[in-house]
Automatic annotation (TrEMBL):
The lineage of its organism: Bacteria, Bacillati, Actinomycetota, Actinomycetes, Micrococcales. It catalyses: coproporphyrinogen III + 3 O2 = coproporphyrin III + 3 H2O2. GO terms for biological process: heme biosynthetic process. Its cofactor is FAD. It comes from Kocuria soli. It comes from the Bacteria. GO terms for molecular function: oxygen-dependent protoporphyrinogen oxidase activity. Pathway: Porphyrin-containing compound metabolism; protoheme biosynthesis. SUPFAM superfamilies: FAD-linked reductases, C-terminal domain, FAD/NAD(P)-binding domain. Belongs to the protoporphyrinogen/coproporphyrinogen oxidase family. Coproporphyrinogen III oxidase subfamily. Its main location: cytoplasm. Involved in coproporphyrin-dependent heme b biosynthesis. Catalyzes the oxidation of coproporphyrinogen III to coproporphyrin III. This is Coproporphyrinogen III oxidase.
Length: 499
């Protein structure tokens, strides 16, 4: 691949450093490695797992390649769309079915909220909302329109803000199903500025939380909240790896980093891995610039070896999640009885999943890949925020047990009984470090950590645990941090001891 003129200009601008080391091969690491390579550096990327992409991965179920993690990207910014364009994938961008999702409450399933953001309604007069919230809940929600804009503006969590403006019914019946499904956390545990940037400012400008939610919704390009790629978001990870290979980036999998340190012989960084098949021998990777793109706990462990003060910045434990994908032959599902999926309220005792996606109803490319009457549904398990960091009991089940539970939950959520003979194939994927945990004070901790990282020579830290959940947040944050690293390097005094 021949670099563009813009890439040549970028490479010319940053010539001081000659090499870079990226630790972690998720999307943040892949994007960082690409921007460093475009800037003209020799890049080495090390990843502990056998494959790259992190939570943007794939698995095969019933001979169909499906996403094993992230299935879409938020379109509130152009960051992911720009990356997709650079990789030549714009023609594969696809929008979801506009039927929308449902919410499953203690008293049954109802169409979900589509007029606002995070489940916060942007229209209190929409049909069915009174039935969902109840008479008192509806009255309490409409108080938001009469209260001064200053009410709730100092709230630290999403739950605190919504409860102050609209009451508990909106929190538990609309917002909690959304945040538990997307972030695996209750609204009371989510930092409002991290998961809903601009919401408090919009509240002050619009005068009500209802109007603020509506304004943020309207700001979404083309009226879409999310989009994906034909073939799944795993196509993005594969394209990044191909691009890096073309650019000569050294890609190393199975590299479980034991230690990070400054190179005593050269100007730069090095990581050390003990080779499992060679006893005491070690493998060392080096780079003048460092991008720490590992998960939060691994990043802090490695950075603490350089400066013990980093140990005080250990992030909150990431919510653990299990995804059970079912492929079933059930023509009754052709009508998409619950739209594109269902978000589950925390007080719905007869369902243990926190969310379900009807993938073959949501994405046309999945529908087209299946024979008539066959469907793909994916159920998510594992709500964060349990006391004493206890794991959700569903996650202790074996894969076979979880598939059995998923069949039962899917029957309830879809309103169509799935029989054992309907199951064509199934797979369970478990994630332990895929989600960030943006609890109150998260932004302040991120600022402090990055201030400390900035004190290290030629280093930055990136990833979902810092940027927040979602490809849009990760891509934007990573590219900004790498650009700033390169700018600092260009402005630093020249040295003659490059590796």
């Amino acid at each position: 691949m021949t670099p563009s003129s813009d890439e040549h200009q970028s490479a010319t601008k940053y010539r001081r450093a000659r090499s870079a080391l990226v630790v972690g091969g998720g999307v943040a690491g892949l994007v960082a490695a690409r921007d460093l390579a475009i800037a003209g550096l020799r890049v080495t990327l090390v990843e502990s797992r056998p494959q790259f992409g992190g939570a943007v991965g794939s698995h095969m179920v019933a001979d169909l390649v499906l996403d094993s993690g992230a299935e879409s990207f938020a379109t509130r910014t152009d960051d992911v769309a720009d990356l997709i364009k650079e990789l030549g994938l714009t023609g594969r961008v696809c929008a979801p079915n506009q039927a929308g999702s449902w919410v499953y409450l203690a008293d049954g399933a109802r169409p979900g909220e589509r007029s606002g953001v995070l489940g916060i309604p942007g229209d209190l007069d929409r049909e069915g909302l009174r039935e969902t919230l109840g008479k008192y809940g509806m009255w309490r929600a409409k108080l938001d329109l009469k209260r001064p804009a200053r009410v709730g503006v100092k709230a630290k969590t999403v739950g605190e803000l919504v409860r102050a403006r609209m009451g508990a019914a909106v929190v538990e019946k609309l917002v909690a199903p959304f945040t538990l499904g997307v972030h695996s956390l209750h609204p009371d545990e989510l930092d409002v500025d991290t998961v809903a940037p601009g919401l408090r400012k919009a509240l002050q400008e619009c005068g009500s939380l209802t109007a603020a939610a509506a304004s943020l919704r309207q700001a979404t390009p083309a009226g879409q909240n999310v989009a994906s790629l034909s073939g799944g978001m795993n196509v993005l990870a594969e394209a990044l790896v191909r691009d890096l290979t073309t650019r000569g980036v050294k890609l190393v999998t199975g590299y479980d980093v034991l230690a990070l340190d400054r190179d005593p012989r050269r100007s730069g960084w090095m990581v050390v891995q003990r080779q499992p098949d060679t006893g005491d021998k070690t493998a060392i990777a080096r780079g003048e610039l460092l991008v720490m793109a590992a998960d939060g706990s691994s990043a802090i462990r490695l950075l603490s070896g350089v400066d013990r003060d980093f140990a005080q910045l250990q992030p909150d434990p990431s919510p653990k999640v299990a995804l059970a994908t079912l492929v079933v032959d059930r023509p009754e599902l052709d009508a998409a009885p619950r739209g594109t999926g269902v978000l589950v309220a925390p007080d719905a005792k007869d369902v243990r999943a926190k969310a379900m996606t009807h993938a073959s109803a949501k994405w046309q490319w999945v529908r087209d890949a299946l024979p008539a009457g066959r469907h793909v549904v994916r159920l998510s398990y594992g709500r964060g925020g349990e006391k004493d960091n206890q794991v959700s009991p569903e996650l202790a089940l074996t894969d076979e047990q979880l598939v059995t539970l998923a069949m039962r939950d899917a029957s309830t959520l879809l309103g169509v009984r799935l029989r054992p003979q309907d199951l064509v194939d199934a797979d369970v994927v478990r994630w332990e470090q895929a989600l960030s945990r943006p609890s109150p004070g998260h932004r302040d901790r991120v600022v402090r950590l990055r201030e400390d990282v900035a004190k290290l020579p030629a280093a930055v830290a990136v990833g979902a645990w810092l940027a927040g959940t979602g490809l849009a947040a990760v891509v934007k944050d990573t590219r900004r941090e790498v650009a700033e690293l390169l700018e600092r390097e260009a402005a630093s005094p020249a040295t003659d001891d490059h590796p």
